[in-house]
Amino acid sequence: MSGEAIRLLLADDHPVVRAGLRAVLDTEPDFQVVDEAATAERAVALAAAGGIDVVLMDLQFGAGMHGSEATAAITAAPDGPRVLILTTYDSDADILAAVEAGASGYLLKDAPPQELAGAVRTAAAGRSALAPSVAHRLMDRMRTPAEALTRRELEVLQLVGEGLSNLQISKRLFLSQATVKSHLVHIYAKLGVDSRTSAVAAATARRLIRR
Questions:
Q1: What is the reported pLDDT for 2?
Q2: Distances from the Cα of 52 to the Cα of 7, 68, 104, angstroms
Q3: For residue 64, is pLDDT > 90?
Q4: pLDDT tens digit sequence for 135-147
Q5: Which residues have C-beta within 8 Å of that of residue 57, sequence separation ≥ 6?
Q6: Is the pLDDT reported for residue 211 higher than 80?
Q7: Alpha-carbon gap, residue 142 to 173, rounded angstroms
Q8: Model-level pTM?
Q9: For residues 67 and 142, what is the distance between their CA atoms, to the nearest angstrom?
Q10: How many CA atoms lie within 13 A of 69 on its CB side?
């Protein structure tokens, strides 16, 4: 292994996924998988310890810190490693949260090995590495900004979809109930609906929020 190897940290709560990723990445002569993390908290700690160039980060870790939170913590550190999101989720809510957290790239787990390897090298070089479908969704948002739901609106709608009441949403997001209602009014107008159920159905069909 040369001194120029790109040092990788695999952060995913599924051992089988980590093993599969390691098997694929170990075939690349310029990659070195130096550690693994089964929780987002562990990923943040390992990244802070140094010796990592790129973190391959899942978004969902069950209980505990979310992948986007871990990404924000890692990228906030000076000279911290790059973070490449590798997930099964491609909703606008997930993509925006990751990009705003400072992720260098966003790839889906069904990406072919050569695309994954290319994304790792691109992220390591400090450039943006987005899956084509993700880049397309972001471009669509930029083309029609007036119709696009904001990050906060997507957060509210995701929680509505999970069955939370306005009061529960206000507590979760540290907002007043009046603010939550205001967000819902804007969401209804943008989606052309008039109820919570219709808003969730429309947003799910358009992959704005996670199913």
A1: 42
A2: 5, 18, 14
A3: no
A4: 988 888 888 877 8
A5: 11, 40, 43, 67, 70, 71, 83, 84, 85, 86, 103
A6: no
A7: 26
A8: 0.82
A9: 25
A10: 11
